[in-house]
Give the backbone structure.
Amino acid sequence: MIDALGGEVKLEGYLSSEARANVGNGSPYLNQWIQRFELNAEVNYEDIGIFDTLSFVTVIRPEFDAAYYYGDDIGGGRGRNGTTPSYMGNKWGFDNNPVGFGGFDAIVGGPFGTFNTGGVGKLILNGLENPSFANNFETILNRTASGAKYSVAAGNGSMLSQFSPLTPMELNCRRCYDLDDDPLDVAMNNTGSSGRLYPFRELYVDATAGDWWFRVGKQQIVWGKTDFFRLQDLVNPVDFGQHFFFDSFEDIRIPQWIASAQWKFGNVGPTTDNAIQLVWNFDEFQHVGLGNPSAGWAHPFSKDIATFAAFNEYFSVEPCLGLNLAVADAAAAGVALNHNIVCGSRGPNDPRKPTGFGQPAGLSGGDNRPEWDIENTEAGLRWEFRLGELHIATSYYYGWNDTPIFRFDSVLVPEANLAGGAAALLGTADCTIAGLSAAFALPGGGGGACTNVAGIPAEAFGIPIRVADPNQALQALAANGTGQILDNLTGNMVNVQDAAREAIAKKDATILYRTAIMNGGGVSMNYKQSHTPGLSFDYFEPWSGIVFRVESSWTFDELVNNTRKANWVDTSEVMRWSIGMDRPTFIPWLNKDRTFFLSMQIFDTWYMDHEGDKHTGYFQDEHNFITTFFWIGNYMRDKVKPVGFVVWEEASNSYVFGQNVEWFIDNHWSIKGGLHMIWEGDENYRHDLGPYTSFATPGANGLRDPYNNSVFGVGREGIGALRNNDEVFFQLKYQF
């Protein structure tokens, strides 16, 4: 504390070094080694103009993950070489990711065969990348229904495993966060989720005038009374990609540019300590942080999103061929080589790749997060007061749901299944997808018949398809669908038109999609503005010594994914509530001198308009109950502090256990060590694939698995999705 700048300057902060070793994925390795410096600086003034006090405050927090950036085989090294799979994955290749590696050649049992486009492995085959390029990816979500690792060679079931980047890569995804961060930025936590104005974490002005308190700038607004989870605490999104929920919300909230005003107006009738707070979040919209997919604690959905973006980058670009393959395959087809199909024939910036299908796929729609506009800003208010022994807080917030949902903007419908001119109703024809030889089919000019580049009719090589809106495609197939197709759930052959009509009648698109009639589609990430009122109170019961806490919120028309809808989009009223109990308690056999602080909470997320079953519809259950138990102890005159917790999620039957002990050596130095363990439930990870059922490799019985670990299987697993990221950690900290 010093006198400077015409006022009082206060400086405090810390320097820490924390090593986190992953012990849950086979051989232990150093997952993260984070060096962090945080400086909290204030300049305080009194009696400035109309203000009683005026303060300028900033929090600066640069950091660096040495294990990420410099690590070798034993540490992942994802920032620079990516030689070791991270916590979700295995070494990437055709055997455990047949479609991602070999494209539709996987259907005929090999990575390279009749169909010479599709599959990232084609980049290696055509000499555009070295074999070491495969080290940039890992195979994720590669479990069968029995829980075993999927393998083409072993023939152990139909599986759509996915590939995800191990190193930061520039993926073709419009306005997507975190997917193309530089390795140094990821190591410094300067990502799309947390990097705005880096390393300034907070920067605001505080002022008081009588009963008014104002704060404007980059800040955190803290509402609510629960630990670990948020109900009313909606103003700032949270970056779960840093360290899941193991760090305090103060450290993982994403500060926003916000104007806040609070008025304390004392006693009104039977109420006391009345205060109303108004907030206006005028920052550009920021969704929940999931982390760069290559980072040590990236949330599994981040890897899922990276997979969709990789499909867009490596599967949807117009295809081409390496010169050697083009010459050989053109000769085999008995046609003259058309150099237009050779990679690089359009010059050094030729965007085509031999991995392409030539159609929108994956996350081709990008991230449709709202642009900054006055109408897209967020606002809310909170009124808190006391009524006798009750401390009550009511809130209202109008803002964007900060968790994105996937929407199918288009699906790819085979023309062969459209009769009576129905194809013409769905738009211009394109040829590709599968059945392509070296002299493969490309879109014909002027929307006419698809022809191969060498003049051979497309029907000889390709599968003509139509790009269509999902609901229009469903209606067209119901009116003019033709042909028989395999129902992959029942194993029976069904009429295409009958399946489409049944899907419409029962309002369940999965009836049609599980036949694998669609050849995938294009997806985007979307958001919606919603109204969320909330109510909470706490009460101290003197006889038992327990503080009771209740918190609740109700979100109107929250955007949710529902795989029974043709485009996967739905809305639901969502109620979230919790009950908590806190008590200081003597446990003499553990400590006869000091109490332990004990806390228990029960949460529920209730989807009021829930639809579906275990494998279709909402990937969340109607109710998701979570129970937490938390404890803090003190020893050696509060110099040694053990802290622990247990979390159980009922829907996924997953558990989390954490325990650490911190020793405060003196007023400046401390050391802390502990562990976090995560257990997943049994077979809780299979959910509907929708239009991507066609990408699942047929199993030994010839059927594709329409319910799979991919896409929403991650959501079904809940907190158990990070099951392989158990860790032990050690921290050294200096505070000043």
Observations:
- The two ends are 11 Å apart (CA to CA).
- Residues 73-77, 79-83, 428-461 have pLDDT under 50 and may be disordered.
- Residues 127 and 139 are 22 Å apart (CA to CA).
- Residues 408-524 form one domain.
